[in-house]
Amino acid sequence: MLEFARIDTPAEGNQAWSGANTRGLAVGLALTQEEVEQIQRLRYSVFTEDMGVVFPGAEDDLDQDRFDPWCEHLMVRELDTRRVVGTYRILTPENARKAGGYYSESEFDLSALGGLRDQLVEVGRSCTHADYRSGAAIMLLWSGLAEFLRRGGYRHLLGCASVSLRDGGVTAAEVWRTVSKHLLDPSVPRVQPLHRYPVEHLDSTLPARVPPLIKGYLKLGARVCGEPAWDPDFNAADFPVLLSTDRMDSRYRRHFGLERA
């Protein structure tokens, strides 16, 4: 297992990350069950308040599922209060095999990614506290993901970018208008949703903005590699996003330390 500097003492030891601190924040992997529970509590709060998600089986206001024990949990924490304000969970190909597959396989047929699986890391359950959505926290999370890829020798990231349908699909329609051209690129593998969201019925006339997280993925060089799946539990359209380090914008490869010699 990769060992990272403790989130609250990023300068200790030889594992501290360059640039791991910014404005009183630090990024690293959760190392204790207590830290994982803080992350699960943040996820529960953000998903219920922002997306109206209902977790009927949740206990003690925690969002947890069968994949959590197999995942590494990346978090951004305030150094002074120790409050967790951002997170991603990371499922390596090795642990995906132990878990019986990736979480994404509950929504998509990933057969087209067969050749990538040995170097394919899945990320998900991304969220940030409402106080930290101006960019600093998400940049730290991306720095952490890049470091995880670099240390593990992984080349591909896969995730489901969820777009809430609470607005009747207006935002999902804008996302689809923006990314549908990716499916015309023959170099991008094509995955198939198991329960396809009917994009042809999306209202494409009302104005909307692409969510900042998805906009950030696109700037990094990610591609949407299939039509969205419908996630009834989260009341969301889930867009499958694939990011390969060799297709990242060169500026970001340099910024995140992934530029090859």
Q: Number of helical segments? A: 6
Shape: globular
User: On the 0-100 scale, what is the average pLDDT?
Assistant: 86
Query: How far from one another are the termini?
Result: 26 Å
CATH architecture of the domain at 87-255: 3-Layer(aba) Sandwich
Helix content: 25-40%
The ordered string of helix (H) and strand (E) elements is: EEHEEHEEHEHEHEEEH
Q: How many β-strand runs?
A: 11
User: What ranges have pLDDT less than 50 throughout 5 or more consecutive residues?
Assistant: 1-22
Task: Output the CATH class name of the domain at 87-255.
Answer: Alpha Beta
Strand proportion: 15-25%
Main beta sheet: 9 strands, mixed
Radius of gyration over C-alpha positions, nearest whole angstrom: 18 Å
CATH topology heading of the domain at 87-255: Aminopeptidase
**Classification by helices and strands:** alpha+beta
What is the gist of this entry?
Helix content is 26%, strand content 22%. The protein has 6 helices and 11 strands.
